[in-house]
Amino acid sequence: MFETSKDVLNLSLALGALVITALIAWLLFQSVKIISDIRKTTKFITKKISILDDILKILKDKIEKSSSYISILVDLVSKLVTHFTDYTRYNKTNAPTKPLKNRKVATVDIDEE
After folding, report:
1. Which of 32, 101, 107, 113 is most buried, taking the most CB atoms under 10 A from its CB?
2. Number of domains making up the chain
């Protein structure tokens, strides 16, 4: 079978080439798996970013719509505050001079059963 050292050398070279080929095939398979996982991950992240973008657009629209109502509410509150401050100033200047203990208070009789 092995007549010369050249036969042993050829056999060892063939086994080495076979091992190197198997190693390259295994590395290629692993790199394809890694690339596939990366593709799935980027697809997942893209989907989540799209959902987040939709949510932010909805929030932006709601804030823009509510900003007009907020300005109306601020005007309303400022007018109410002005009205009540004027009302209290008017009542303080036109307050009756009689002390409270001399005033008659309406009472209600409750019959207990």
Report:
1. 32
2. 1
Query: Rounded to two decimals, what is the model's pTM?
Result: 0.49
Report if residue 6 sits inside a domain. no
The token duo for 14 is 């063939």
Three-state SS for 2? Answer: coil
Amino acid (1-letter code) at residue 24: I
- Residue 95 three-state SS: coil
Torsional class of 109: left (φ above 0), alpha (ψ -120 to 50), beta (otherwise): beta
Domain that holds residue 74: 11-93
What pLDDT shows up at residue 108? 59
The alpha carbon of 89 is separated from its chain's Cα centroid by a whole number of angstroms, namely 48
Domain-embedded: residue 112: no
In a domain, 109, yes or no: no
pLDDT digits (tens, 9 = 90+) for 53-106: 999 999 998 888 887 788 788 888 888 888 888 777 766 666 555 555 555 555
**Residue 31 placed within a domain:** yes
